[in-house]
Amino acid sequence: MEQKAKNVSPFSNESRNAYIVEHLTSSMLALLEEKPIAEISISELCGMAGVGRTSFYRNYEDKEGIIKAYIRRLFQDWVDKWKTAPDLSVKETVQIVFSHFEANRDFYSLLNKRGLVYLLKDIILDLCGFDPEQELAAAYSSAYVGFFLYGWIEVWFRRGMKDTTEELIAYLPQ
């Protein structure tokens, strides 16, 4: 009996999926430079990324999901810093967060330009540990920090991202 060679991809499923995510993300960012997210079709996005629509839906529920996943990856450095020193003061936390935004200014300017800043809210609340099922003090404390950060971030965007981290933390109590 003659055996035929199997047609096996040189990529593992994990590598293939990373490739898909990377190409969908870079294509989404390129398209957002040109037009608002509402004007980007899934077909156009997948065509530019060179992947099938099934690959898109296997990884994301909607187009915003690509941006949310990218933000989470960008925030990973901040999360790592925060986890190594979980008792940071509000001032230190604000400094780390706004340093992150300044380091990724081009991306966040694009989010602001396209009216997608709202995508940060749930991510920031998650990162601050907000869970409505927490004990009373923990729930309100984490919500306070999360909404405080989100509010300052949104104002910073609306002001054109011109205020420096040092200027912002100067407004916090000692």
Give the helix/strand class.
mainly alpha
The biggest beta sheet, please? none
Number of domains: 2
Low-pLDDT stretches are 1-8
Task: Walk me through the structure.
- There is one protein chain.
- With about 170 residues, this protein is mainly alpha-helical.
- About 70% of the residues lie in helices and about 0% in strands.
- The chain is built from 9 helices and no strands.
- The protein folds into 2 domains: about 60 residues, Arc Repressor Mutant, subunit A; about 110 residues.
- The longest helix is centred in the last third of the chain and has 23 residues.
- The relative contact order is 0.09.
- The N and C termini lie far apart (about 80 Å).
- The N terminus is likely disordered.
Short description:
With 174 residues, the protein is mainly α.
Q: Which short descriptors sum up this protein?
A:
mainly alpha, Arc Repressor Mutant, subunit A, globular, 174 residues
List the helices and strands and how they pair.
Layout: H1 13-34, H2 42-49, H3 53-59, H4 63-84, H5 90-103, H6 105-113, H7 119-127, H8 136-158, H9 165-169
